[in-house]
Design brief:
Layout (H helix, E strand, L loop, with lengths): L19 E4 L13 E7 L3 H7 L2 E10 L4 E9 L2 E2 L2 E3 L3 E5 L5 E7 L1
Antiparallel strand pairs: 1-8, 2-6, 2-8, 3-4, 3-7, 4-5
Length: 108
């Protein structure tokens, strides 16, 4: 069971955030806290190869919202340039079963 710091009250309207937690998503696991926003960054596992080839990647990530709806969002990366994506959403799970690294920061 995850903790909802906003249970019984309206979520804050945005930054500044008082808390942050870096997590490693495991397929199907509940997040330890329901955030008011999160950042996602996709990291190539072979950074040198990506930089040499100038590889661009569009990576889908699925999040499960509180009502059970699954939402697919897309992250981008070009070579060694990682572009963190900020999402003002409150998911309960991040469905990720890939071997590549995904950096996730929960904010609330």
């Amino acid at each position: 069971m995850n903790t909802d710091p906003f249970a019984g009250r309206a979520a804050s309207e945005g930054p500044p955030y008082d808390n942050a937690l870096i997590v490693t998503p495991e397929m199907g696991d509940l997040l330890p806290v329901i955030p008011s926003a999160l950042t996602l960054t996709y990291l190539h596992t072979d950074r040198s190869k990506a930089a040499e080839q100038g590889l661009a990647s569009i990576v889908p990530v699925t999040v499960q919202m509180q009502n059970g709806t699954e939402l697919e969002i897309f992250l981008s990366c070009y070579g060694q340039n990682f572009h963190p994506a900020f999402y003002p959403i409150r998911p309960t799970r991040i469905l990720w079963d890939r071997s590549e690294a995904l950096a996730v920061t929960l904010l609330w």
